[in-house]
Amino acid sequence: MSPLRRLWNVLRRSRMDEDLRQELDTHVALIEEEERRNGLTAEQARRYARARFGNALMYREQALDAVIATWFEDAWKDVRFAARVLARAPGFSTVAVLTMALGIGANAAIFSVVSGVLLRPLPYPQSERLMYVTTQFPALGSAATPLSAPEYLEFRAVNRSFAVIGALRPGAGEVNLTAPDGARRVRSVNVDEYLLDALGLQPAQGRLFARGETDRTAPDAPLPPLAILSHELWQSAFGGKPIIGHMVEVNALRREVIGIMPPGADVMDYRTEIWLPLGLNPLNPGDRRSHSLRLIGRLKDQVTAAAAQAELKTLNEQWGERVGVTDHMFAPMPADAASRASTPDAGHVLQMVPLHDQLVSGASRAIWMLQATAGLVLLIACANLANLLLARAALRHREFAVRTALGASHGRLLRQLIIEGLLLSTAGSALALWLARFGLYTLTRAYPAALPRSAELRVDLPVLLFTCGTAIAMGIIFGLAQLRHIGGKGLSVALMEAGNRGAVGAARRQVRRGLVVAEVALAVILVIGAGLLIRTVYNLANVEMGFDKSRLVTFSISLPDSTYPGPNKRMQAFQRVLDVLRAVPGVEAATAMYELPPNSPALKNNTRVAGTTAPSPERFQIVDYYQYVVPGYFETMGIPIVRGRSFQPTDATSSGLAAIVNETFATTFWTGRDPIGQHVKPCCNDQPPWFTVVGVAKDVKQGGVERETGTELYLLVEQVARPVPGLGIAPLNHVVLRTTLAPAALAQTIERVVREMDPAVPVVRLRDIEAVVAESIQRPRFLAQLLGLFAGLALLLAAVGTYGVVSSIVAERRTEIGIRMALGANRSSVLAHVMREGLLLTGIGVVIGVAGAFGLNRLIVSLLFGVRPTDVLTFAGVVATMIVVAAVASLLPAWRASRLDPVAALRAD
Amino acid sequence: MPKHTNDRLQGTLDLLILNILARGGAQHGYAIAQRIHQATDDSLRIEEGSLYPALQRMTHEKWLRAEWGLTDSGRKARFYTITPAGRRQLAEEERRWLQLTEAVAKALRFA
């Protein structure tokens, strides 16, 4: 019968019930009539008829059951019954729901990440057609570098595979924006109109850049005075008031707001707040060697990625002839080493990856690892629940035997168990979804930059389906599992067993022990993984930075070219700020610099190094980091000078150009020679005279605590700002104070000082250096914290499981223990006996878990730092922890066993 | 709902009911029970507990049609008549019954 039909019948039930009652009444009446004809009295006839007919009601019920699907009614009854049953065991229900909520919740949260970061397409139309194009310089060890402007313009002209290809620069930039509520620093990106076109972005209001609008008219002309705001910036800085066509002040220049992006519109996951013109000059695109453009292209509809890849390959081969350049052109990597050495640009080729891969591939291993660990937590939770349900099944043995004896069918019992399971899992998953939402919110707030696309993360439909699927599967499986244990044997056996505690199925006991072993093994794997990541974070946080991290407070200000034309103005502004801050009580020293370690980008600048011992001394050498500083930098930062001297205030005015290099620089370029007195000529001008090395500084982790130390070159801002070296720059961005005060205590002073200097310049990223270092290792910290949480959960669940099983072993063996004690076993031997049971199970689990961890940890090598995946200390620590936890979990039931009164125990049956 | 092709006992009751209705026109439940008693010389007593469910089910299968009417003694009762589908079912049930009894008889002879 179809479900619809059944429903119809249920609705008609009252009517049919009435029909049937009437029919049965007639039947009884007819029997009566017949018997009276046979000579019985009316009273006798009625009694006979009733007796013969039995309970009219019962027949009616049966007749109805045969036709009318009481299925829905029964199901509802079962739900209510199940709710009553569960309410009668509040301890069990609470533990079961919580276990399920934690297990499913962890998975729902992590699956939200998997779904939102890895699975969901990027939020652009037909985003799978978007490709990220870069070039590479294998000789420099660089696998993905931006393109130069001439290369980009040539490529855009000749390419056939892409419908549109656009460029952006430089990465996540920042500009000062004067908003109604004051100056603020906002994340900016410079793009051309082609890029917005390629992404398929449409403005929510106004318009985007038109053709030619993002170009400069001359190489040194200012950027076109236009800007597009993100929806979020428009809301937060301008209160969502009409703004199209209005002027805003960006880096002290007035720009017209021509459009507002729709909410969430972004590129490259920069969380862009303001979109500015790229400012290429197509007629005079500039230096081929200056690589700063990132390219995103949209493939034509009929072009496959493979075809585009093939086109890039052919383009690389004949680039020089086609565009008529001989220097620094695209050149495939020659096969033989000789021609590789003679072609300086060997392997400088165009390459592409899907944009989605470019954004998420770096995080995908970490995310899948998290999903795997969440899966393990769920498995442990399942094992625990199975354990709990089996223990409960044992208790309900009698109930089910009696119900079977009273006529409940197997199907009916099964349905009831499944409904109980579903009720638990529904409650559990509702709680789980709440946990997942809360967890996701907390995580993305605490670690906004630990994962790509984190702004897009939410508990969405796939997550909901995933959660419901898991919950339903769990509910049904647990219902079935219980029935297998209850209904597996004949009724009589069940009834007999129900009366005899000692004979309860040995199979069930084995299953429960197996489950505890599995739980312990999985927990060990998880805790070892968490241990390794925690040690990774510890190692990262304790890397020798090369400077003294204590009591350093930093902030950043950015002086726009328009208000501070020329290096001297900038330098003077910084000098003024430093002078005022040095006079603040509690500030011991203050300095300014170009990049703040450990966040310096690797510049890899071409540098002339005189007298170098490097393999090809006549060519440029690649120097990883340039750091421009003011006198007092090394003293304020606490960077030891290991040879020679540091920059002196007299260097600022002295005509002798001084440079300081780090130890790695000295040993790389002047192996075995004295670096003091050697000469270097910094990038990117052949004119400047040589700088003389006056000192060697200790290595500093410029580009990240987990990175190898690079070659570092320190130059004095006062000297590079001068006209004589011809560099003409004063790139200062960060101020660092050595102070006993906290950042919060300094905030007001610093903001006042900067405001007095220039109210359009905001103070940003005011914090201590410890926070900067902590932020730079955000992802490992995020992983360690999350995995630590999961491991803690696993440990707790395993402890609960062990406790439960040991308790039930004690309960089942009451008689045996009673006899032992009656025969003279003392309490401590009973205690030891029970403890041994618990520890044996744990021991087996630990051995399996350690073996599993040995096998699996290979997969997380790339996430570790300074610790091997088979680290003995971690393994030993985890094994010890697990055994202590198991011992504690077994102790309580063991102690209870040892307190048993043997007389009471023996009398119980 | 699946047809009870392999449930012999139920099939037998169905066969008897259909047979009676095919021969005797519209009849109510009591009369059907009485007819089965008489026809089998009281050797088969139909439980009312099985009769009415069977009638309900067969009506539902559209083998029977049920209508309210009055008995000889003026009581309101539901009268059942066989439908064309019921007749086809009857033929089918008869065929199966013969097959079964034949098979059983053979088995008994050779056993």
Describe what this molecule looks like in 3D:
The complex is a heterodimer of chains A (909) and B (111). Chain A folds into 4 domains: 3-69, no CATH class; 127-357, no CATH class; 362-541 and 778-907, no CATH class; 564-757, no CATH class. Chain A contains 27 helices and 24 strands. With 909 residues, chain A is α+β, with helices and mostly antiparallel strands. In chain A, helix 13 (410-446) packs antiparallel against helix 14 (461-487). The two termini of chain A are 50 Å apart. With 111 residues, chain B is α+β, with helices and mostly antiparallel strands. Chain B has a single domain (8-110), classed as Arc Repressor Mutant, subunit A, CATH 1.10.10.10. Chain B contains 4 helices and 3 strands; from the N terminus they run H-E-H-H-E-E-H. Chain B has helices at residues 8-24, 29-39, 48-60, 84-110; strands spanning 27-28, 64-70, 76-82. Chain B has a 3-stranded antiparallel beta sheet. The radius of gyration of chain B is 15 Å and the shape is globular.
